[in-house]
Please model this.
Amino acid sequence: LIFDSNSTVLDVTFLDEDLDSDELGGLVSWTEPGETYQLTHYVVYLSSSDSGTNRSQIGSVMTIDIESTSLMYNQEEAFHTHVVVYTKSLLTEQTTPAFLAISDTGAYIGSPLLVDLDLDWDDIGGPVTWIPPLDNILTTHYDIYLASDVAGANRSRIGADKAVGINLVHLAPDFTKTPYTHVVIFTRSALVEQTTP
Model:
């Protein structure tokens, strides 16, 4: 008598909370399979296909009482297109995983603008405004800085972070402009501030 069992996890989910394009981060979760009596562990990977090719393990091998793992923020998406979850028995890891296609999230503001109302040379001050990202679902806050380049080098924070829905912050007058040349605004999710403004 041969008994063949299928212990593939169900309902794989991943919400990319890293707001930089081509970077991933967030929680991967799943539901245990219907058949668990031979199941001992789960293993989760990033993969270049739904079948698990070119895979890179996320976290450690997990016991069956754990049904989620965190993908650390700023993970390069590279060639990864899927999250795959394998089950393991005492004998081996399954050959056909459960999978989910990755949807990378990017949330960038538009048109940051500082209207300088300070009339002194090399001093700035006034309102800073911006246009919120088109896809703003995962954005919780904006972090606003003056910087010496468009990428945010040598940045200095302008006030406290601002909640979504607030697109204005005031830079107090008499702020010395040198060495700053740009206003840069980073979006923030519940996970992390983006690395590229």
